[in-house]
Every structure is written in C-alpha cells, then in structure tokens.
Design brief:
Helix content is 30%, strand content 24%. The protein is an alpha+beta fold. The strands form five sheets. Strands 14, 15, 16, 17, 18, 19, 20 and 21 form an eight-stranded antiparallel β-sheet that branches. It has a five-stranded antiparallel β-sheet with strand order 7-8-12-10-11. Strands 3-4-6-5 form a four-stranded mixed β-sheet. The relative contact order is 0.11.
Length: 499
C-alpha cells in the first residue's frame, strides 16, 4: 500500500466519531507532515529529499514568502531576463528582511542545497535561478535612503538601479548605475558595474564604501576598509562568491540632471567608418563622454545600421568639440541626441528587455583597437532575416582605468571597452546554426580580447575563470576559503574553495 494512503487510513481508523472535523484535519496533518517529502538537488548535483516538516519550519520562521511549484507567484519568481533559461527551483524564498535571508541561508547550507540568488534577473547565463535547488528572490528587499550632506546612499540588496537613480538625482547627486533601470544593484555592482557615468566617477563597485552581507555561516557581517577588509576587497569584483549583500553604502557625486544623450545612426554600409571613428575616440574622449558603438542587423523588414550611443555630462559649451569626430561622418539616417533628463536616459534601454526571445552572447575586454580588429568585425558580421544580430562596444577607460588593478578584485582596469556579440531569436525557433555562427565569428575576434566581464560568465572551467581574475585570483581564493569553504555560493563566476 502507498505510504501516504496507509497513513491516511490509519488516521481515519484511530479517530472516533466524536472528534470534530478541525481536530481530525489537525491530527492528519501532524502525522503526514513528517513523511511528506520535497525532491531537491544539492550543490554537487545529487538528489535529496527534504522532509515537509523541515520546510514547514523554514516557512514558519519567515516574515516573507516561501513558494513551492504551483504556488501563486512561483513562476514569476523563477524566471529570469533571458527567456531561453527555463529552470524550476524546488523552493523560492522571498525575504522580508535580513533575518529571513539568514534563515534561508542556514536551511540551504544545512541541507547542502544548490542555491541561486536573484536580484534583477539579468544574468545572461541564468545564474540567478536553478533546477531543483533553492532560489532566494530579493525582489522583496528594496529601498534607497540618501544622505545628501554625507553624499551617501544606503541601498537594499534587492533594489533596482532605477530606484537608486531616482532617489539620488532628486537631490542633484549620482553614482554609476548601469544602463538599464531594471537591472539589480547587487549583481551589477558585485561584478563591476559599468554605466553612463563610469568614466567620470568609476565603476559602481569603486563607489561602494561598505556592505552588509550574510555569509555562508548565516552570520551578518559589516565589511568596509576597517572591518573585514579582505571581504570588502573581495566583494568588489568577486561577484556573489562570498554571500548575499543586504545593504550597499554608495558614495554619491554632484551632477546636473540635464545631459546630452541619444543615438546617431548610419546605414549599415557605413559600419567601417563608424568603427574607425570609434577606435579614435576611445583614446581621446574626455571622462564626461560615455560613447558606445554598434552594428545591428534586425529581423527582416528593419534596415540594418551602424550607430553611436552617447551620454555627455560635461560642460555644454564643449559638447560640439567633443562630438566633432562623429559630425565629420556627415548626415546620419537618424539622430536622437538632445538635452535630456539623466534619469529618463537611464530608462531609455529598458524596452530592450528580451523576455520574449532567446539569446546567445559572447564578450571580452579589449585593451587596444587596431585596424585588424575592425577588419575582422566588418568581414565576419552577417545578418539573418529571422534573427537579430548585433556587435556592440561598451566604453570603459577614464576614471575606471586610473584605479590600480589590485585595489579591488576587479582586475580589468586597462581595458578601453567591452566587446559583445549577440544573436536573438523568437522562442521555439532556435537553430544550431545560430549559435554555431556566433561561435565561429567570435573565434576571429577573441584573439583581440583580454578576459571578460564576470557578470556575463557562462560555464567556463576553473582554470579559465582563475586566469580571468588575473593577478587577483590567489587573494580571492583566500577570501573564499575563509567565508564560504563549502562553496554554498557557487552559481556565479565561481571560485572553488581549496579547503
């Protein structure tokens, strides 16, 4: 007889007719809860059965929600930005405060569960969700408090970049905060944090003055230059390897709300001209200019283009001179550059949300932009009528490059830009040819790169990941050994502990 049916029958037989229905239900639940199990997966991929009583105890310890498959809100929590990632955690915790996070971490550690942490869900490789493990969804842990006199902002670990921009710019202050407002502060900052004012004020992580973080032992630590300085160093570039940051303290900088921003678009047959001008401006642009360049082949019916995307936050009187190299290319097919509100500019790419499409991406940093790279870019780029294909550069340099490579765990200080290639397709139409083409194209570009942005990590080997941290890896390994010796936090650009 099935164990569950046997228990049900035993309960019924042992209860007299004088017992109320409420008492009967309570007696039944008390007996069956011990034996009802939830199938889950450990960090090393083994199956584990979670007793329902233990899960119920976890739920009772939380002020926030514990979601199981089939519960309202479960599907929204498990999904991430890349719709090609479709995973099903065994349970999802949506914390309402730091204590909830500590309880969830304790439960995951004690049961050796595979653990994913989700903030904005922008991880291209889907590291913020998992199959069969626990997902901690920080979307319920959001707030921003700005101290204008100290020029500091306390930002909860689950907050989105747009919330930080809105609150700080209302007081004439800003810090680097990506280029898409629905990106999570935690994921962006722990890996680096590029953005439209990074060349002026440094990476997001360069502006972090302290963190509060729940480590693998369930403790809440405050880390800054004086307290736990090794952890403070490691979280600034080491990603989510060391715990869950519940609060960031950011330094803020005075800046006017009005910036000059927009796109300058040329026909795709001008791609070589655009890339040549871009290579020249990477070396000469002032810190106040953030300049990206792209070649894009949209699906059939939309013309391809080569374009610049810019944000200039400097002296308006110098804008014409700064943009003169672009103006020398002649009349574009379209231009949207105008004086705009910075917070609105930060939202301008939000409609690029690809939740309805699958995507594949490769990326790497470039420290130089020789003519040979331009040749490879132009010669290898090709579109597909049913796909969207893009090559994209995100500028670095400026203040980013003036920080020593060992000052934080982020080592790629000498880069001029990040180079990305993307291909996207409507869900259900993926072809092996799509990814095959991108891998072949990338093989011609990769020799010009020097490592990659860890926020875009996929499933590289430990040897490859170690080399990407460059001279900072050995120090990072010591931090990992101290704060997460069991590798509970492994769904990231993972540093495997050596203890």
């Amino acid at each position: 007889m099935n164990r569950r049916n046997f228990l049900r029958a035993s309960v019924a037989a042992g209860i007299t007719s004088s017992v109320t229905s409420t008492e009967l239900l309570a007696a039944y639940e008390a007996v069956t809860a011990v034996n009802s199990e939830i199938e889950a997966v450990t960090g090393d991929g083994k199956s584990v059965a979670l007793e329902r009583t233990a899960v119920d105890e976890l739920k009772a310890s939380l002020r926030g929600d514990l979601l199981l498959p089939g519960n309202p809100g479960y599907d929204a929590a498990r999904r991430v930005l890349n719709a090609g990632i479709d995973k099903y955690p065994a349970l999802v915790v949506q914390p309402d405060g730091v204590t909830d996070i500590r309880h969830a971490v304790d439960f995951a550690r004690d049961n050796k569960l595979l653990l994913a942490v989700k903030c904005g869900g922008h991880s291209w490789a889907g590291k913020s969700t998992c199959d069969g493990g626990m997902q901690i969804d920080l979307s319920t842990l959001r707030h921003v408090r700005v101290d204008p006199e100290a020029r500091r902002a306390d930002v909860a670990g689950g907050s989105l970049l747009g919330e930080m921009d809105r609150e700080s710019m209302a007081l004439g202050l800003v810090t680097t905060a990506g280029t898409v407002s629905h990106t999570g502060v935690g994921g962006l900052t722990l890996g680096g944090g590029f953005g439209r004012v990074a060349r002026r004020f440094g990476l997001a992580l360069d502006n972090v003055r302290s963190v509060d973080i729940v480590t693998a032992d369930g403790n809440l630590l405050h880390a800054d230059a004086e307290q736990h300085p090794d952890l403070y160093w490691g979280v600034r570039g080491g990603g989510g390897n060391f715990g869950i940051v519940t609060n960031f303290e950011f330094e803020l900088h005075p800046m006017k709300r009005e910036v000059l921003a927009g796109e300058v678009m040329f026909p795709i047959d001008r791609a070589r001209d655009v890339m040549t001008v871009y290579s020249e401006m990477l070396e000469t642009a002032p810190d106040e200019l953030y300049l990206d360049a792209m070649i894009m082949s949209p699906p059939e019916g939309v013309p391809g283009m080569a374009a610049f995307s810019l944000c200039y936050s400097g002296d308006p009187g110098k804008a014409d001179a700064v943009l003169a190299p672009i103006r020398k290319l002649g009349k574009p097919m379209q231009e949207t550059v105008a004086v705009r509100d910075y917070v609105e500019v930060q939202k301008s790419f939000d409609n690029s949300d690809p939740r309805s499409v699958g995507e594949y991406m490769k990326s790497g940093f470039i420290n130089a932009y020789p003519p040979e790279l331009i040749d490879r870019i132009i010669d290898g780029f090709q579109g597909d009528p049913g796909r969207s294909t893009m090559l994209y550069f995100q500028q670095s340099g400026g203040a980013i490059g003036r920080v020593p490579a060992d000052a934080t765990a982020f080592a790629h200080r000498k880069s001029l830009a990040s180079m990305f290639i993307f291909i996207s397709w409507p869900l259900g139409t993926q072809s092996d040819d799509d990814i095959g083409y991108m891998r072949k194209y990338w093989s011609t570009l990769e020799p010009f790169t020097d490592g990659w942005y860890t926020n875009e990590v996929s499933n590289e080997s430990q040897r490859v990941l170690s080399s990407n941290y460059q001279g900072n890896f050995d120090r990072l390994l010591k931090v990992k050994n101290r704060y997460d010796p069991g590798n509970l936090f492994r769904l990231n650009a993972n540093i495997q502990p050596a203890v």
